[in-house]
Automatic annotation (TrEMBL):
Species for this entry: Roseibium limicola
Boundaries of every OmpR/PhoB-type domain copy: 124-218
UniProt lineage: Bacteria, Pseudomonadati, Pseudomonadota, Alphaproteobacteria, Hyphomicrobiales
Protein name stated in the entry: Response regulator transcription factor
Metal-binding among keywords: no
GO molecular function terms attached to this record: phosphorelay response regulator activity; transcription cis-regulatory region binding
Domain Response regulatory: residue ranges: 2-116
Modified residues (4-aspartylphosphate): 51
GO cellular component assignments: cytosol; protein-DNA complex
SMART domains xrefs: REC (SM00448), Trans_reg_C (SM00862)
Length: 222
């Protein structure tokens, strides 16, 4: 899953990115509204963490522009303002949730999980596919109760497929949602990670749809 963090405070930006990467996300970052708007307008993100008090272009304007242009990714707004009118303005501009500064990083992680989960139509933090279980809170993956150890890229791949199970996901879509903007995006790398993931979770759960991509599902349920 791929996120965008738009925050002009360098220390907070770094802390957010570190926490989100540690939680298993691919993260792009911007330090002003113009750069943030451009990235959100041109790259496919699963969610955005957006500060309102940004230089060059304020966060509310960024959000309003995205929504006007049809960008529907979930947006979590960060604000140092505690007036209820500012929170209402953020929601009215198209925010899906908001957090006031200062905040605990665990709250950000929980709210991001919820936004990504709901956007994919899931109500629970535990995603299942046949014998496979993925706990989004702990990043723990099990099959038939046995824990499976995954690398960061394997975990990102599985998380994206689990959020969209039953759907055919192209290699291009996987590439766009697994890697940061400046990562060397080679679609052949996706095939390598799919192969490795199959060996760990079972080849029966990931189906190759020739010419289209991959689909995660329990063949026994079909």
């Amino acid at each position: 899953m791929r996120l965008l963090v738009v925050e002009d405070d360098a220390d907070l930006n770094r802390q957010l990115v570190e926490a989100l990467v540690e939680a298993g996300y691919a993260v792009d970052t911007a330090s002003d509204g113009e750069e943030g708007h451009f990235l959100g307008d041109t790259e496919p993100y699963d969610a955005v963490v957006l500060d309102l008090g940004l230089p060059k272009l304020d966060g509310l304007s960024v959000l309003e522009n995205w929504r006007r242009d049809g960008r529907v990714m979930p947006v979590l707004v960060l604000t140092a303002r505690d007036r209820w009118s500012d929170k209402v303005a953020g929601i009215d501009a198209g925010a899906d949730d908001y957090v006031s500064k200062p905040f605990h990083m665990e709250e950000i992680l929980a709210r991001v999980r919820a936004l990504v989960r709901r956007a994919a139509g899931h109500a629970s933090n535990e995603l299942t596919c046949g014998p496979l279980r993925l706990d989004l809170r702990t990043s723990r993956v099990t099959r038939d109760g046995t824990a499976i150890k995954l690398t960061s890229h394997e975990y990102r791949l599985l998380t994206y497929l689990m959020h969209h199970q039953g759907k055919v996901i192209s290699r291009t879509e996987l590439t766009e949602h697994l890697y940061e903007q400046d990562f060397d995006r080679d679609s052949n790398t996706v095939e390598v990670f799919v192969g490795r993931l199959r060996k760990k979770i079972g080849a029966d759960l990931i189906e190759t749809i020739r010419g289209l991509g991959y689909r995660l599902g329990d063949a026994r349920e079909g």
